[in-house]
Amino acid sequence: MRAISLLITLGCLTLGGCSSVFDKHVEYKYVEPNNYPVLKAIGYAPISIQKGANASQKQLMAIKASKLEAYRELTEQVYGQKITAGTTVEGSIAQDDYLESKVQGLIKGAQIIKTYAVDDTYVTELELNMKRVHDLYIGEIKPREVKKVTYY
Question: Sheet of 111-118: strands edge to edge?
Answer without folding.
Answer: 38-46, 121-129, 111-118
